[in-house]
Amino acid sequence: MSKPIDNFHLLSSKQRRFILNNDEVLIDLVRSNMSERRFRHSLGTAELCKELALCHHYDPHKAWLTGLLHDMAKEIPPEETNRYLEYYDPEKLDEPDKVKHSHVGKYYLREKLHINDKDILNAVYNHTVLRSNDKLSLITYVADKREPNRGINDEVVAIARKDLKKAVETLINKWKEKHEYKDDALKAYLKDNDND
Ligand SMILES: [Fe+2]
Ligand SMILES: [Fe+2]
């Protein structure tokens, strides 16, 4: 069954710009592309991205948009996920399934929504396994893991308001402490983040 996002490319450039510049309309489009639970998670991530951006002198709306869109590729079928990677990024075909959606998110947003902002695409690409140290990637990574709907009330958000890199280190150390994978943050992350 086709979704509104599949018809986005059929719109005029004026209509496409209207949607991308109108938060309420964009929110509806995102909602139509995922489960209600994931939509709530995306909105929560967007709001925390915005808050952290304001703390760190980053464009709050760009951060909000990145949070809102970060999981857009999470619910596309595995065959389609692999098709994107085969075409755009074959080296990532061996990544765990939970990680693939972040890589595919970059190509999906570019292709389906005509998002070309390199910072947004990079932060989406890196929101599972952080391999980028730019501010938007750090903000999105932390916000995704601690948005309020996850129900985890620890010190990470307070740390992130002051120091994003320290917040990332804190998250990784928590996973290492909790699991037997003492020196493999990726495996610990995968174990802890079913819903990301
Ligand atoms: Fe995700
Ligand atoms: Fe997420």
Give the tags.
single chain, 196 residues, mainly alpha, Hypothetical protein af1432, 11 helices, globular, binds fe (ii) ion
Task: Describe the model.
The protein has helices at about 15-20, 25-30, 35-55, 60-70, 80-90, 95-110, 120-125, 135-145, 155-160, 165-180, 185-190. It is mainly α and about 200 residues long. The chain has one domain (about 5-190): Orthogonal Bundle (Hypothetical protein af1432). Helix 6 (about 95-110) runs antiparallel to helix 7. The relative contact order is 0.12. Bound molecules: fe (ii) ion (2 copies). One fe (ii) ion (FE2) binds near residues 71, 74, 127 and 128.
CATH topology: Hypothetical protein af1432
Query: Which class do the helix and strand fractions yield?
Result: mainly alpha
What is the CATH C level class, in words?
Mainly Alpha
Question: Got a strand count?
Answer: 0
> Which spans have pLDDT < 50 for at least 5 consecutive residues?
none
What's the total helix number? 11
Our estimate of the beta-strand percent is under 5%
Q: Architecture in CATH?
A: Orthogonal Bundle
Q: How much is the radius of gyration in Å?
A: 16 Å
Biggest beta-sheet profile: none
Q: Short summary of the structure?
A:
The protein is mostly helical and 196 residues long. The chain has helices spanning 13-20, 23-31, 36-55, 60-69, 78-88, 97-112, 118-125, 135-146, 156-162, 164-178, 185-192. Helix 3 (36-55) packs antiparallel against helix 4 (60-69).
